[in-house]
């Protein structure tokens, strides 16, 4: 019956799975399983930018992941927020299990896009993922994680898309401003994907300069280097 409904949706609406593009009403079971099967681990960047925080990802930026993240933030496929936030929540719990301290208070701090990018997309995708992930963590382990807008890029930020590693580092140097976290809270940086690590490094430096160093960072996915570093 589900297959019949999927084919009917494709015939009438042109609906397809955003991961594999097979006929369907939403993310198919196979792509959902591929997404959930990503290995949660600490990430290394090579070369590692100065200030790159301890960072946990929930899978590689390969397979269906690029299509799902692009569909979510660029095409506003908001149904993908829940499964992607589940992966982000897994990264949060892994980081806290490894580095967290009992009795400490933590907050998720999204690394937001520039105001121009948010207006163009009509969506602050990183903040939405952080909010959904915080709900999941609270439901799973009973830990409250407020989502704080502590880090902001300048209004005339240059988009990172299309820049090589060196240009990304230059673009993000001194790129963010931050305000201190509420007294007693330890920030955890949040982003959707890390490539060179320059964005997270710049955001972490801004938080440290504000007097609120981050415990670390969490992302949904991390790119995989396919050639030796220079």
UniProtKB/TrEMBL annotation:
Domain Phosphoribosyltransferase, residue spans: 177-222
Keywords for the protein's UniProt record, in alphabetical order: Glycosyltransferase, Transferase
Coiled-coil regions listed: none
Claim: Membrane is one of the keywords in the record: no
A Pfam family that the UniProt record links to this protein: Pribosyltran
Keyword Hydrolase: no
Signal peptide coordinates: none
Segments traversing the membrane: none
Listed GO MF terms: glycosyltransferase activity
Source superkingdom: Bacteria
Similarity comment: family membership: Belongs to the ComF/GntX family.
Listed name of the protein: Phosphoribosyltransferase family protein
Lineage of the species this protein comes from: Bacteria, Bacillati, Actinomycetota, Actinomycetes, Propionibacteriales
């Amino acid at each position: 019956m589900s297959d019949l409904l999927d084919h009917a949706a494709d015939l009438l609406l042109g609906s397809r799975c955003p991961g594999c593009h097979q006929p369907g009403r939403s993310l198919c079971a196979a792509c959902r399983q591929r997404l959930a099967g990503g290995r949660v681990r600490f990430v290394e960047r090579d070369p590692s930018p100065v200030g790159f925080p301890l960072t946990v990802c929930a899978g590689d930026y390969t397979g269906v992941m690029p299509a799902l993240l692009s569909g979510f933030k660029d095409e506003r496929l908001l149904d993908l927020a829940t499964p992607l936030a589940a992966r982000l929540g897994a990264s949060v719990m892994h980081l806290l299990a490894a580095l967290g301290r009992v009795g400490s208070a933590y907050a998720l701090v999204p690394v937001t896009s520039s105001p121009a990018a948010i207006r163009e997309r009509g969506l602050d995708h990183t903040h939405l993922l952080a909010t959904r992930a915080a709900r999941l963590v609270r439901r799973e382990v009973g830990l409250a994680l407020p989502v704080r807008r502590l880090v902001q890029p300048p209004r005339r930020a240059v988009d990172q898309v299309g820049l090589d590693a060196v240009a990304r580092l230059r673009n993000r140097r001194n790129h963010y401003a931050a305000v201190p976290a509420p007294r007693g809270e330890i920030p955890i940086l949040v982003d959707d994907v890390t490539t060179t690590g320059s964005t997270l490094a710049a955001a972490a430096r801004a938080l440290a300069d504000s007097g609120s160093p981050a415990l670390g960072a969490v992302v949904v996915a991390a790119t995989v280097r396919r050639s030796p570093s220079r």
